[in-house]
Design brief:
Blueprint (H helix, E strand, L loop, with lengths): L1 E5 L2 H18 L4 E4 L6 H12 L9 E4 L1 E3 L10 H8 L11 E2 L8 H14 L5 E4 L21 E4 L2 H7 L13 E4 L2 H5 L3 E6 L5 H9 L17 E6 L7
Parallel strand pairs: 1-10, 2-3, 2-6, 3-5, 6-9, 9-10
Antiparallel strand pairs: 4-8, 7-8
The structure holds fructose -6-phosphate.
């Protein structure tokens, strides 16, 4: 895996946003896989800034988000869709029809997962998947376990993951849904390019295991070692154990 280490989380966001903008200029209908969470927030802020400076045009870009909580209406302010609206979609010229999301309020979960896989395939696959790293090694909501799911699926969230998401729910752990829908490991690994972002000292141990340890379902991010185009972009704190 290609490793890049930057002075700060802001530097990671600045350089990567310029990289994404360059790729969109080269391929205006780029298919982007997007993550939510704390890590990509500075990246989205930087993309908004570049868009306002007319340095990136999202008119033909297509996006697929990695995951969504199960049981939350789309418009719920705590949904990942609302998160993306707040941080990116409301501030750039990405047409609504180009934004794809798993529907967390679906009545037919199996059908929704199949629909998502097909939509990704119909778009020609993901050109660039942006990932964050769960402190327990999850990517998307592929949680550590004895086995992993290949394709988009329903998943039960670990307590640690729900705790990490509690700030989105005003700190109320009980309000964080217990289940979610998530792209699977193959959905992610089929992406042509993958960039995992990790910032902050609390990710350092997991980063070390992901890069130096064995490939294991106990640490889903370790599967990125199998991908030819996977890159890991870190700040110094996240790289401190390497
Ligand atoms: C969110 C997602 C998760 C997060 C991970 C890290 O869409 O897919 O895998 O990327 O939980 O979250 P933060 O960035 O908040 O540490």
């Amino acid at each position: 895996m290609r490793l890049r280490v930057f002075r700060s989380a802001d530097a990671v966001a600045r350089v990567f946003a310029r990289d994404v903008a360059r790729r969109i200029r080269r391929n205006p209908s780029l298919v982007l896989g997007l993550a939510t969470g704390r890590t990509p927030v500075p990246l989205y802020a930087e993309l908004v800034r570049l868009h306002r400076a007319s340095r990136v045009d999202f008119a033909q870009v297509r996006t697929f988000n990695l995951d969504e909580f199960l049981g939350l209406p789309t418009r719920d302010p705590h949904s990942y869709r609302s998160f993306m609206r707040r941080h990116l979609f409301a501030h750039v010229n990405l047409p609504r029809r180009n934004i794809q999301f798993l529907n967390g309020s679906t009545r037919d979960v199996d059908r929704e997962c199949v629909r998502y896989e097909r939509a990704i395939r119909r778009a020609g696959g993901l050109d660039l998947q942006i990932l964050g790293l769960g402190a327990n090694g999850h990517i998307g909501f592929n949680e550590p376990g004895d086995a992993l799911n290949a394709h988009t699926h329903r998943t039960r969230l670990r307590v640690a993951t729900r705790r990490a998401n509690a700030p989105l729910f005003d700190g109320r752990l009980n309000a964080v849904p217990r289940e979610a829908l998530s792209m699977g490991m193959a959905t992610i690994l089929y992406s042509r390019r993958i960039v995992l972002l990790a910032t902050g000292a609390e990710k350092a141990r997991c980063v070390e295991r992901m890069l130096r340890g064995p490939v294991t379902p106990r640490l889903p991010a370790s599967f990125l070692q199998l991908h030819r185009g996977a890159e890991v972009w870190l700040d110094r704190a996240a790289a401190s154990r390497l």
